[in-house]
Design goal:
The strands form 5 sheets. The chain has an 8-stranded mixed β-sheet with strand order 1-2-4-3-9-12-10-11, sandwiched between helices. A 5-stranded antiparallel β-sheet has the order 15-16-21-18-19, with no helix packed on it. Among the domains are: 219 residues, Aminopeptidase, CATH 3.40.630.10; 116 residues, Immunoglobulins (Immunoglobulin-like), CATH 2.60.40. By secondary structure, it is α+β, with helices and mostly antiparallel strands. Strand 6 and strand 7 form a beta hairpin. One calcium ion binds next to loops.
Length: 581
């Protein structure tokens, strides 16, 4: 009998394990699903375990609620230390609700690692670049977006309590999932003076009534009650510290920039991420993924911010290719959308010396159910915009058809009566949490691949400098003319021109040692022998290697035997050559 009980226990244990295994995360990772916060960590550990020679998994720091922020470094140490190589930084999900951004990061890591050794180009970028990947910056946000009831736009904040309505209480009136379905939907009430009526073509939708015509519904906003009895509903939700307004460069206080936080990098997780970035001065390319709207945004973030036009030229090459890799996206400076203070792009460009993009993932207009796909689509709403409510009736109807026939009806919740403590008889319904700013799962694979391909394009276009001696010519007794060329056939220069112009960090160095350098300078025209000689310390030249081009130097050297020529760069790989006099 006892043995039988043990057997049953063992058997049921095995069964439980089998059930748990159904969601097991293995390499290669899958992108027909979203990973919650814990699963992202399991996925990163799985990649690290499968590719120990190419990866390093670090904990960058902890969040406000004590969750770990992970960074995966992809680098081949056999080809050099990561800090010696052009660094490519990629992060996502800094806004808690923008979860597919984390999947783009995981996909990029998964692609580099699983194709290493099989695909020549991937192999080269893993060997030549250092890739730093933080899939989830706002770890509390991702955790809670999955766990808690939300709209597709709620739960963006860093978990720093703030009294949004200045009533002395913090975060006291969040949304309430009144019908307990895991989504925060909309509330509406019957009202002949309301500005909406039931859509005659689809009774699940509402359309605006024309001026002077009788209405049917007033929209009361997101699901919720007046939790603190102050007469307002949902007026003080979690936070608000906007993690993309809390960076150091051009930070402005709350009365200028909402969501700014108390001071730059007051978010402790953000500070940890910044420390991680600044400890890697080799980072020359940076991506932060968000949703939504389909945009590649770069600095400047405000009209007043001045940036180098030579950098714009480099950015343009990346941006113009990016919009071809991601059809429907636009490429523009961030301030074209609206001015932001303390944003990531400008911080990375002006303080880390990196070309930086915010990638606004996904356009809901791609959810199509149309006969004629050549007809123009409605312009995508900007991030933080009204989402589906901002669209035209035609657009909403089409999205409802998409929901019916491709979303298998899971995207929209039909209006249902509810007894509200303040409003009385109302109805709750509308688009659910995992919609609007997120692609449906069958579309996720394409989204993550296209956007990871943009990052790959940039990584491949980080400077690859070549050092060659053009000439060693005897011009007198123990006196030689040495001409050296630094060339680069990639789209990005060896550092940003902004960093050079503003003296953000040291320029690249070209150094001659082993003999006395009598004179040295840039050879501006080798045919006419034009040299801009440097007056002091001619053996050390400071420079930037341009994109798709070269820069030549001439040294007049006095001595005999072997001399050494060194190229040293913070962002590009160091090089050495020797010449025999
Ligand atoms: Ca309050
Ligand atoms: Ca608050
Ligand atoms: Ca209230
Ligand atoms: Ca209140
Ligand atoms: Zn965002």
């Amino acid at each position: 009998m006892k043995r039988c009980i043990i057997f049953i226990l063992l058997f049921s244990f095995a069964f439980v394990n089998f059930a748990a295994d159904k969601g097991k995360i293995e390499v290669p990772l899958r992108f027909d699903r979203y990973y919650n916060y814990d699963e992202v960590i399991i996925a990163l550990k799985a990649l690290n375990k499968a590719f120990p020679a190419l990866t390093e998994l670090d904990i960058v720091g902890q969040s406000e609620e004590g969750r770990d922020i992970y960074a995966l470094t992809i680098n081949n140490p056999k080809t050099g230390d990561d800090l010696e190589k052009p660094g490519v930084y990629v992060d996502g999900n800094i806004h808690g609700n923008e979860i597919q951004a984390g999947e783009v990061c995981l996909y990029y890591a998964n692609m580099l690692l699983t194709k290493y050794g099989e695909n020549e180009r991937i192999t080269k970028t893993v060997d030549r670049n250092a890739h730093y990947i933080i899939p989830v910056v706002n770890v509390d946000g991702r955790y809670r977006f999955f766990e808690d009831a939300n709209t597709s736009s709620s739960n963006r904040s860093i978990r720093v309590p703030r009294d949004d309505d200045n009533d002395g209480l913090v975060d006291e009136d969040n949304y309430d999932d009144l019908d307990s379905d895991g989504s925060i939907c909309q509330m509406r009430i019957k009202d002949p003076f309301g500005r909406y009526k039931t859509d005659p073509e689809d009774p699940r939708l509402m359309v605006r009534v024309e001026e002077g015509k009788k209405g049917e519904w007033t929209v009361l906003g997101q699901e919720g009650i007046d939790n603190d009895g102050d007469g307002q509903i949902n007026e003080d939700t979690e936070g608000y510290l906007d993690p993309n307004r809390n960076w150091g460069y051009n930070w402005m206080p709350y009365y200028v920039q909402s969501g700014a936080g108390l001071f730059p990098l007051s978010g402790i997780g953000l500070k940890a991420v910044n420390d991680y970035i600044m400890a890697r001065p080799n980072i020359i390319m940076a991506y932060a993924f968000h949703n939504s709207g389909g945009m590649w945004l770069r600095a400047p973030a405000t009209k007043e911010e001045k940036i180098s036009q030579r950098d714009v030229a480099a950015w343009d090459i990346l941006g113009k290719n990016a919009i071809k890799i991601t059809p429907g996206y636009v490429y523009q400076p961030a301030y074209d959308l609206y001015s932001t203070y303390g944003d990531f792009d400008s911080h990375m460009y002006n303080l880390a010396g990196a070309y930086s993009f915010v990638g606004e993932l996904f356009q809901s207009s791609q959810e199509t159910y149309r006969v004629d796909i050549t007809k123009p689509i409605v312009a995508p709403p900007a991030e933080g915009g009204g989402g589906r409510r901002g669209g035209s009736p035609e657009r909403s109807r089409e999205q409802m058809k998409f929901n019916d026939h491709l979303g298998i009806g899971e995207m929209y919740k039909d209006w249902k009566p509810y007894k509200h403590p303040l409003y009385g008889d109302i109805e709750i319904g509308g688009w659910v949490k995992m919609t609007s700013r997120l692609p449906q799962l069958f579309m996720l694979q394409e989204l993550v691949h296209r956007n990871a391909a943009v990052v790959l394009f940039s990584a491949e276009n980080t400077a690859e400098v070549k050092l060659e001696t053009l000439e060693t010519k005897k011009i007198g007794k123990d006196l030689y003319r040495v001409r050296v060329r630094l060339s680069n056939d990639k789209a990005l220069p060896s550092m940003t021109y902004q960093a050079g112009d503003k003296k953000l960090h040291r320029k690249d160095i070209l150094k001659v040692s082993g003999a006395k350098v009598v004179a040295g300078g840039e050879l501006t025209d080798m045919y006419r022998d034009l040299v801009t000689y440097k007056e002091h310390k001619p053996e050390i030249q400071f420079l930037i290697v341009p994109s798709y081009g070269k820069i030549d130097y001439q040294f007049i050297v006095e001595g005999k035997g072997e001399i050494e020529i060194e190229y040293q760069s913070i962002k590009a790989k160091n090089l050495k050559a020797s010449v025999n006099l």
